[in-house]
Write a structure and sequence with these properties.
The structure holds 3 protein chains of 3 kinds.
Chain A: E1 2-6, H1 17-26, E2 30-37, H2 41-48, E3 53-60, H3 69-79, E4 85-89, H4 92-105, E5 109-113, E6 115-118, E7 121-126, E8 131-137, E9 142-146, E10 162-165, E11 175-182, E12 195-199, H5 206-220, E13 223-226, H6 228-232, E14 253-257, H7 263-269, E15 274-279, E16 292-295, H8 298-308
Parallel strand pairs in A: 1-2, 1-4, 2-3, 3-10, 4-9, 5-9, 12-13, 12-14, 14-15, 15-16
Antiparallel strand pairs in A: 6-7, 7-8
Chain B: E1 13-21, H1 25-37, E2 43-47, E3 61-62, H2 65-70, E4 88-94, E5 99-101, E6 117-118, H3 121-134, E7 138-141, E8 145-151, E9 154-160, E10 163-165, E11 171-176, E12 180-188, H4 195-203, E13 215-224, E14 234-240, H5 243-246, E15 250-256, E16 261-269, H6 279-287, H7 290-296, E17 300-310, E18 321-322, E19 325-327, H8 343-362, H9 371-379, H10 381-388, H11 392-399, H12 401-416, H13 430-433, H14 456-461, E20 475-477, H15 482-491, H16 495-498, E21 504-508, E22 517-521, H17 531-535, E23 541-543
Parallel strand pairs in B: 1-2, 1-12, 2-7, 4-14, 12-19
Antiparallel strand pairs in B: 3-6, 4-5, 8-9, 9-12, 10-11, 13-16, 13-17, 14-15, 15-16, 18-19, 20-23, 21-22
Helix pairs in contact in B: 1-3, 1-8, 8-9, 11-12
Chain C: E1 10-15, E2 18-20, E3 42-44, H1 46-61, E4 64-73, H2 77-87, E5 91-96, H3 103-117, E6 121-125, H4 136-144, E7 148-158, E8 161-168, E9 171-178, E10 181-185, H5 197-203, E11 207-211, E12 224-230, E13 239-241, H6 244-253
Helix pairs in contact in C: 2-5, 3-4
Classes of the chains: A alpha/beta, B alpha+beta, C alpha/beta.
């Protein structure tokens, strides 16, 4: 099988999401990467260095600068005659483009795969990850988006793919990019952060919450979250709330400080790769799901931890 | 209910012939019966849950007597009641580590479950709701009745709750005022401890000739169990341990229902004196009894919920009619306590109410006091049945579990044989029965094991309850100082224990002097069981209907 | 292919789906065949509710003339359509089928309805909270050759175009799309209104027509076979560390310190 992978980039640099998509794709067959954008020579070279990539196709055109699917999808569709599968990372760009490609190819799409079980068989989350479906495609071609946290990143170096320029398909003329506001806070956004430090009601009040949690988050370059109880008690505004009625997060590392682990909170962070809990109650439910637990008084442990990092 | 409900906000009015408050067995039966007798009457049912059945929680083993009268073809239809007839019936007395079965020969014949069915009452109500709508009844789920509408002394309808009101009582962007639904007759069928029923009982002094109502808190779970352990139609009731330890009254139930599931639960009578009792923990430790645990091992919990049940019996049935309205079902209280059955009597009372209302409207009487309804009910099989068992609960309450049960059995047999040795026994309210914390031992309940027993917050999440966060708190404290001034020091803060949903928590006040604490009310967790309204020792808590559509979403409960 | 400009009195088409209520925890059946939906509360997909709200607001602003809601699903989806009518939609179409219909077939049916109804704007939820596919809006756009504005947190109609602000991984992005266009909604677009009792009563007399997938010439046979549905792996309890130093060590191993 040959697989075409969508490269995630910002025209200047390749993004890590591409590396996970390459891993997923490599489980299906020979991997070629499509770099579509504007002024993407550097991105194409970086893509060529990814371990396991056989070829890089470069579509360089102003019409592709912002990944507008009306312009990009025809490019992909035109190439798919030579491929068995199209794999895009499950980023907002990948999720925007892939289904349009699938419809134009008249095939089903399998969204957000967690694993490759066979040449046409995959697992994917449904019901917000409360259930896992194993599905098998009967289509001649596959269109897939792959969840980044489910596939290890391919090595960014070691590959030496051939890089080939391809004909571009121009601007469909029905959509245009107007502007963007890329969040530029010092602290990462909760729903996309790699590391999150979250505080619970044990943090006493807003000042104590800030004085205890924020320095640790700063040291780790982490986003800050909170349990419902902490938000209800007024320690932080409600867009900090992680949980069933707040935000659903899936960072690499989730550090729960003084959070008991009520199921409504767990519902919001259960997909975190590693959960760390600091709580003085050894029976707190959070220890049943924490990968690493420290039973300690957070008012001693957290400043000590912050100091030693 | 927001303070806006009291203001003169512009509200639309919609007239009906009959308005039914509550989409449970009594309300739906009443609605169906009205349409059967006179299809031209306009009937609407208001239901505070997000759908019919969302707030229905019961065992249940149902005596089909009322269904046979209301919808005689039910056995040949897709009615869920028809699915699982009771096949065997056990009554156990539990000791700490063992149990023994009470032979059925010792129990009066009416205690047998032969001919009865075990079913999810929620599913039965969904089916009844469908039948009602087929007959032209309008059902409005997600709309609680928040206020009563009067014209002088006469009840002329209800007002639905306002939506989109913030925590401080101010309208939000999506504010929708409630609507006035006027009616010739209003049926209050809110279930046990209905909040509007509480008000009409006071206004019309409906309890002037009866004993105060008393209640039990039933907490229930639904489990998938290992197929080889499932015996469809098997019914089990237990008494004795664990309530024997705190000298409280109540018992457990476990019914094998459809779909390989068991409905199991525990009822703790709320007249317990020891304020350290936690009905939730009693239920959790009952499940750990070897005879119960073995049924659940290898299985999985599917849902959880709680609701109070009337235990006052016949002597607590109030006057049922007042100008323009009637009480039906558990709002009045027709539960046969030893049989633990109240659905059939609830349905029958709804039917009797319907008959009286249709007759009154036909005679051109609008808004009258339907004393005929009450008279008919007091001559009906509801009365016959409840009189037979009316001393069972008071005897147990007075003499304790073991002796009380023997006496109750004797009394029931005597009455069955038409001898009435004890007369009708009295009881106090549950709130009054609460004793001082320093006179009783705290109870060391075992920790949850996460397999058979669980912590309370995890359990609440299995009721799928939710409420719009930014709304007025629906648990009203008459005096906000009472929890910390009286409940905490005198009764060790029982609200933190009797609430099966963890709504009430005493938390430390940060930076407070020494032991400063406050009561935190997590209203969002509420499962609408009404225990707090009943058991608060100084009756300081009033439950009112929160914004419509909130509360549990019980599946198959 | 649809061409042409929307005009000030354009029609809005809003596809909606009846799904498990978001408050109810899904229960995976022991036999692996799927999630148990018997006797559980079903509701309008929350993202679709947001789409209905946005369409009704456009009508109230005078940017839309009519809001038509459509659902492809079982007979009970009528209740969901009535809820949308109670929120302010004008007319409903039920494409009745008891089978599960995959996003591609849904998109094809919607494309046929678009050809009949000629809306200026199609508004739908970005994904259904049961299948979580996040495909229909994009597929519909591809099939009809129209532009797509996905994950919208703001929608502004400007003459014959629509400005859509989208929630993307890094922040927000705004695109201009020629009408007719397809927009999929994200959570922050609006807060749906409550349906009042008077509106619920009025909704009963609004038009709801029932059709079948075959009426649109669409074959709904699935392309994907669901081999099994299982629960996610249970997180097992991990290790306890003795002190902060040990925790620092673990954080270094994880590469975050």
């Amino acid at each position: 099988m040959t697989v075409l992978v969508w490269a995630e980039h910002d025209n200047a640099a390749l993004k890590d999401a591409t590396l996970s998509a390459v891993t997923a794709a490599s489980q299906l067959g020979e991997v070629h990467v499509l770099v579509a954008g504007s002024g993407v020579g550097g991105v194409a070279e970086a893509a060529g260095r990814i371990a396991g990539v056989a070829k890089v196709l470069v579509g360089d055109d102003a019409a592709y600068a912002h990944g507008l699917p009306e312009n990009v999808a025809p490019l992909v569709v035109g190439l798919m005659g030579g491929y068995d599968a199209f794999v895009a990372p499950a980023t907002t760009t990948g999720k925007n483009i892939a289904p349009r490609v699938a419809a134009l190819l008249d095939v089903a799409q399998i969204s957000d795969i967690l694993s490759v079980e066979g040449p046409k068989t995959f697992t994917r989350p449904i019901y917000a990850g409360n259930a896992i479906a194993t599905v098998e495609s009967s289509d001649a071609k596959l269109v897939i988006t792959a969840r980044g946290t489910a596939f290890a990143k391919a090595a960014a170096d070691g590959g030496s793919a051939t890089i080939e320029s391809i004909a571009t398909t121009g601007d469909a003329g029905i959509s245009s990019f107007v502007g963007a506001e890329i969040a530029k806070s010092e602290r990462p956004e909760l729903t996309s952060a790699k590391v999150i430090v979250s505080g619970g009601r044990a943090l006493k009040d807003a000042e104590t919450f800030a004085a205890t949690i924020l320095p640790l988050a700063d040291k780790l370059g982490a986003a800050v979250g909170a349990s419902r109880a902490a938000v209800d008690a007024g320690y932080v505004p409600n867009d900090y709330q992680v949980g069933q009625t707040g935000k659903i997060v899936a960072p690499q590392v989730y550090i729960a400080v003084g959070i008991s682990g009520a199921i409504q909170h767990l519902a919001g962070m259960k997909d975190s790769k590693t959960i760390i809990a600091i709580n003085k109650d050894e029976d707190a439910p959070i220890f049943q799901v924490a990968d690493i637990g420290l039973v300690a008084d957070l008012f001693q442990a957290v400043p000590e931890l912050t100091g030693k990092l | 209910m927001s303070d806006l409900q009291h203001e003169t906000v512009q509200r639309e009015t919609m007239p009906y012939d009959v308005v039914v408050v509550g989409g449970g067995p009594a309300g739906l039966s009443a609605a169906i019966r009205i349409k059967q007798l006179n299809a031209d009457l306009s009937v609407c049912v208001l239901e505070k849950g997000s759908e019919v059945g969302a707030h229905i929680l019961s065992g249940a083993v149902v005596d089909p007597r009322a269904m046979d009268e209301l919808l005689p073809d039910w056995r040949d239809s897709d009615c869920p009641l028809a699915q699982v007839p009771v096949t065997d019936n056990w009554h156990w007395v539990l000791t700490k580590g063992g149990h023994y079965a009470v032979p059925h020969a010792l129990m009066p014949p009416f205690m047998s479950n032969h001919g009865n069915y075990t079913v999810s009452l929620g599913n039965l109500c969904r089916w009844l709701g469908g039948k009602a709508e087929e007959l032209g009844v309008e059902i409005f789920p997600g709309f609680p009745a928040a206020e009563l509408l009067y014209d002088g002394d006469r009840l002329i309808g209800v007002q639905t709750g306002d939506m989109g009101v913030d925590h401080d009582g101010n309208p939000k962007g999506d504010y929708q005022p409630g609507m006035n639904l006027t009616a010739q007759y209003t049926i209050l069928a809110e279930g046990a401890r209905g909040h509007l029923t509480k008000r009409v009982k006071a206004k019309y002094d409906l309890e002037r000739d009866c004993q105060p109502q008393v209640y039990g808190l039933g907490i229930k779970e639904l489990w998938d169990i290992a197929p080889e352990k499932h015996v469809p139609g098997r019914v089990l009731h237990t008494q004795g341990w664990p309530l024997s330890e705190s000298e409280s009254w109540g018992g457990g139930f476990l019914y094998h229902q459809a779909g390989g599931q068991v409905a199991l639960g525990f009822v703790t009578a709320l007249d317990y004196a020891n304020p350290h009792v936690s009905p939730y923990e009693e239920f959790q430790r009952w499940k750990q009894h070897p005879a119960i645990r073995i049924i659940l091992e290898g299985g999985k919990r599917v849902s959880y919920g709680a609701r109070v049940i009337n235990e006052g019996g016949w002597q607590s049935v109030p006057h049922l009619a007042f100008p323009g309205g009637v009480l039906a079902g558990c709002s009045a209280g027709f539960v046969n306590v030893p049989r633990i059955k109240g659905s059939h009597t609830a349905m029958k009372s709804g039917m009797l109410a319907a008959e009286a209302i249709v007759a009154a409207i036909a005679a051109g009487q609008e808004g009258a006091q339907l004393d005929g309804y009450e008279a008919n009910l007091r001559e009906s099989w509801i009365a016959d049945e409840l009189k037979l068992v009316q001393n069972a609960q008071p005897l147990v309450a007075r003499f304790g579990g073991a002796l009380g049960t023997v006496l109750a059995g004797a009394d029931m047999w005597a009455r069955y044989l038409r001898i009435n040795p004890f007369g009708a026994m009295a009881h106090h309210t549950d709130a009054e029965a609460t004793g001082r914390a320093d006179l009783y031992q705290p109870i060391a309940y075992p920790k949850p094991d996460g397999v058979i027993s669980f912590d309370r917050l995890t359990s609440v999440s299995f009721s799928f309850t939710n409420h719009e966060e930014d709304q007025p708190c629906h648990l009203k404290l008459t005096d906000p100082s009472v929890p910390t001034r009286i409940n905490l020091p005198r009764y060790a803060g029982p609200e933190a224990r009797y609430c099966p949903a963890g709504v009430y928590e005493f938390v430390d006040v940060p930076g407070g002097e020494g032991d400063a604490t406050r009561l935190q009310i997590n209203a969002q967790n509420c499962v609408h069981c009404k225990t707090c309204d009943i058991k608060d020792p100084t009756q300081n808590i009033t439950w009112v209907a929160p914004e419509g559509g909130g509360g549990p979403n019980y599946p198959n409960m | 292919m649809l061409e042409g400009k929307g005009d000030a009195a354009m029609k809005c088409l809003v596809p909606i789906k009846r799904v498990l209520d978001y408050n109810v925890k899904p229960r995976v059946k022991g036999d692996g065949t799927g999630v148990d939906l018997s006797n559980v509360k079903m509701s309008m997909n929350p993202f679709d509710e947001i789409a209905v709200e946005e369409a009704v607001r456009l009508k109230e602003k005078g940017a839309a003339s009519e809001v038509v809601v459509v659902s492809i699903g079982p007979a009970k989806a009528q209740e969901t359509l009535r809820s949308a009518l109670a929120m302010g939609a004008d007319r409903a179409i039920l494409v009745s089928t008891e089978e599960t219909v995959e996003p591609l077939a849904v998109a094809k049916i919607l494309a046929a309805i678009m050809a009949e109804e000629a809306p200026g704007l199609v508004l739908l939820g970005k994904q259904a909270i049961d299948d979580d596919s996040n495909q229909v809006g994009q597929m519909l756009s591809g099939l009809t050759g129209r532009p797509q504005g996905t994950f919208a947190s703001k929608v502004e109609v400007e003459g014959d175009a629509v400005l859509v602000t989208r929630e993307v991984d890094g922040g927000l992005e705004t695109v201009r799309l020629s009408l007719p266009a397809i927009v999929t909604t994200d959570l922050r677009l609006n807060e749906p209104r409550y349906a009042s009792l008077p509106n619920i009563m009025k909704a009963k007399s609004k038009k709801l027509e029932t059709k079948a997938p075959a009426d649109y010439g669409v074959d709904t046979s699935p392309r994907l076979k669901v081999l099994k549905v299982t629960e996610p792996a249970v997180r097992s309890a991990g290790v306890k560390v003795a002190d902060v130093d040990a925790l620092v060590g673990k954080l270094k191993e994880l590469g975050v310190a």
